[in-house]
Amino acid sequence: MAVTESSPPDTTLTGAASAPAAAPVTDGAVFAPREWLVLITLCCATFMCGLDFSIVTVALPEIGSGLGFSSAGTLQWVATASLLPSASLLPLFARVADLIGRKRLFTIGVAVFTLFSVGAAFANSPGVLIATRIGQGTAAAMIAPSAIALMTGYFAEGPKRARALGLNGAVMSLGFVLGALGGGVITSGFSWRWTMVALCVMGVVALAGALALPSIRESGAAKRMDIPGAILATLGLFGLVYGISTGGDEGWTRPASLGPIVGGVLLLVAFLLVERRHPEPLVPLSVLNRPTVKWSGLFGVITFGMCAGTTVLLSLYMQDVLGFTALQAGLSYLGEGAAAMLGGLYVAKLLTRFGGVRVLTAGLLIQGVGTVAMFTLPVSVNLTALLVTSSVMGLGHVFSVVSFITVMTSGVSEEDQGVVGGLSQLPQYVAAIGVSGLSAIAAARTNALAGSGDATVADTLGGLHAGMVTAGIVALAGGLLVGAVLRKRNPA
Predict the structure, then answer these.
(1) How far apart are CA 49 and CA 30, in angstroms?
(2) Whose CA is closest to 314, among 395, 248, 358, 370?
(3) 253 burial class (0-12, 13-18, 19+ CB within 10 angstroms)?
(4) Are 46 and 168 in contact (CB under 8 A)?
(5) 212 — phi, psi (to 5°)?
(6) Distances from the Cα of 42 to the Cαs of 180, 207, 227, 340, 357, in angstroms?
(7) 3-state class of 322 per DSSP?
(8) Cα–Cα distance list, 148 to 42, 132, 408 (Å)
(9) For 131-143, what is each residue's pLDDT tens digit?
């Protein structure tokens, strides 16, 4: 249970005792001015990290021509160089947050992200840009776990935390959608460098908020770092995510992809064995073995992986089948973004009324229905079908994201908030398996339909449909599984 649940309400924001009479205000869903400062600051950082990946992905062609990247494979490292440290360093920085303080790590992370964004804006060679992207990804690994841990620390379990997580989830999804749109607009009208300037501006705003955040009481229970565990977890996750990220293009049976995946899995197994004996493990097995943590993490991977993979397939559908420009494709994501924002505004009420497990079930089922329905997308433009199916998927995705984080972080002791905060953010980076897997399914089906000839537009559409339906079925299966593994353990 977080400190906010056993302390008077103002304690979570000031670190000082306050009168019990204020409790009804904290238990309500209306934020005080200081709480709005906390929420805006944390959501701004979340939005910045969500924006980072998609805004750069859209700008890749201009980056490649502007800086003289030698090949498309090399250019892809502009995106991958940020993803890999974000995923592999999350557990490490989740524990660092408990060692040096979540607020301090969050502030450092935002400052580092902003500085590397400045460096990226002025990069004059591929090597410099990739180096700054590694720095941005490392900073994101600092920001992600500390931001969620701060949110669960500042807001006690109940309506306020549900509302805060709901808004944060909506902002996360909106960041990805607006990144695709904003990247196209900025790159078309100005230069790819202005995408980095936009991240700098957001970083400055988030840093100003971070410096003004109210103090928060932290236990400081963790006294030392689990060095062997940190090394094994970092290298294991790096190998796993690297192999998954490159496998879709190179083939998962090739040594370049299969080797890192197998090596990553073996290192993670060794990590679990080391954690059993270490007096202060990086990730306590008592936390990792909690049903609400391990099962919520799985459902997080499902909702992120299937949504991210389907979003990539939708982009291919709009550009390769419908012939949309990058800007038109970005505008077509607005329905998904609007649905995500709407879902984020109302998910808190649903969580309060029905509980995290039921909302998680509903979210995955809604996401699955919207994704399976994409089988109806035709070879010609049908904006109604496109907007409706993507919006339903986006709505279910936000419900799923907010509720799995709510279930995962509920009832966690204050000293483990940093660790669980990191674990709750890991699924969005491991979701690369969804992108690679669904892309591989779509490609295989397209090739099967084309036979020995060149693939037609109809063949491409058939392959995309196969990937979309697969994503929908996986999400539906996840929704049906939630009740079986979580409802008895967490009836709320």
Answers:
(1) 27
(2) 370
(3) exposed
(4) yes
(5) -95, 0
(6) 22, 10, 29, 18, 25
(7) coil
(8) 8, 25, 11
(9) 999 999 999 989 9
Cβ count near 325 (within 10 Å)? 12
The answer to whether 405 touches 297, Cβ cutoff 8 Å, is no
- Nearest C-alpha neighbor of 38 from the set 146, 186, 176: 146
Helix then strand then coil, in percent of the chain rounded to 5, is: 80, 0, 20
Q: Which two tokens stand for residue 449?
A: 């339909």
What tokens were used for 461?
């559409």
Please, what is the average pLDDT of the chain? Answer: 80
- How many angstroms separate the CA atoms of 307 and 428, rounded? 10
* CA proximity to 371, closest of 478, 303, 305, 469: 469
Residue at token pair 């909302």: 359
For 337-361, letters b (16+ CB in 10 Å) and e give bbbbbebbeebbebbeeebbbbbbb
Residues contacting residue 349 through CB under 8 Å, at least 6 positions apart: none
Start-to-end CA span in the chain (Å): 15
Tens of pLDDT along 42-66?
Answer: 988 888 887 777 777 667 777 887 7
Residue corresponding to tokens 């420009």:
325
> Token pair 């390769």 is at which residue?
320
3-state secondary structure of 82: helix
Q: Cα torsion at 218, 236, 115, 143 (round to 10°)?
A: -30
SS3 at position 89: coil
E-strand stretches of 82-124: none
Tokens of 132: 């700054």
- Which residues, at least 6 apart from 414, have a Cβ–Cβ distance to it below 8 Å? 1, 2, 3, 153, 218, 219
Q: Kindly write down the DSSP assignment for every residue of 433-485, as one continuous string.
A: HHHHHHHHHHHHHHHHHHTTS---HHHHHHHHHHHHHHHHHHHHHHHHHHHHH
- Residue 229 and residue 282 in contact, taking contact as beta carbons nearer than 8 Å: yes
Element (H, E) at 308: helix 291-316
The rounded distance, in Å, linking the Cα atoms of 172 and 340 is 9
pLDDT digits (tens, 9 = 90+) for 166-204: 777 777 767 766 776 666 667 666 777 888 888 899 899
Percentage of residues of the chain with pLDDT beyond 70 = 83
The answer to whether 60 and 78 have CB atoms below 8 angstroms apart is yes
Q: Which residues contact 129 (CB under 8 A, 6 or more apart)?
A: 63, 67, 78, 120, 123
